[in-house]
Amino acid sequence: MMNITNSNGDITYTDEVLAQIVGLSTMECYGVVGMAKKNATEGFWELIKGESLSRGVKIANREDALTIELFIIVEYGTKISVIASNIIQRVKYNMENLTGLRVATVTVNVQGVRV
Predict the structure, then answer these.
(1) With a cut of 70, which residues of the chain have pLDDT below it?
(2) Number of domains in the chain
(3) What is the per-residue pLDDT across 19-35, written as a single tens digit (0 to 9) for each?
(4) CA-to-CA distance for 7 and 81, rounded, in angstroms?
(5) CATH assignment at residue 54
(6) Which residues, 6+ apart, have CB-to-CB distance to 42 below 8 Å?
(7) What is the C-alpha to C-alpha distance for residues 95 and 100, in angstroms, rounded to an integer?
């Protein structure tokens, strides 16, 4: 959970809401097939689509700023470095503008490539 206090009162964001913002922002980027989640029983990474996009996101609060780590699967034939750069910029922009929270780092982990 993350709290903001100002002269008007307090705002509390749950981890789920923050992760959903990150997941939706990521899916807006060209070349992203979906988020990835590790299957605990088999040890493989599986594709996440739809309403559970937040499952491929980890958010931590470090010194009044967020550190965001996300796990994605990209489309074959796209330049991964460009996709990752676009995701970092979009996630940071959307998170800071929608919530008012500061983002320190965004780490993109590419877990697979799909055709």
Answers:
(1) 38-46, 48-51
(2) 1
(3) 999 999 999 999 998 88
(4) 42
(5) 3.30.70.1350
(6) none
(7) 7
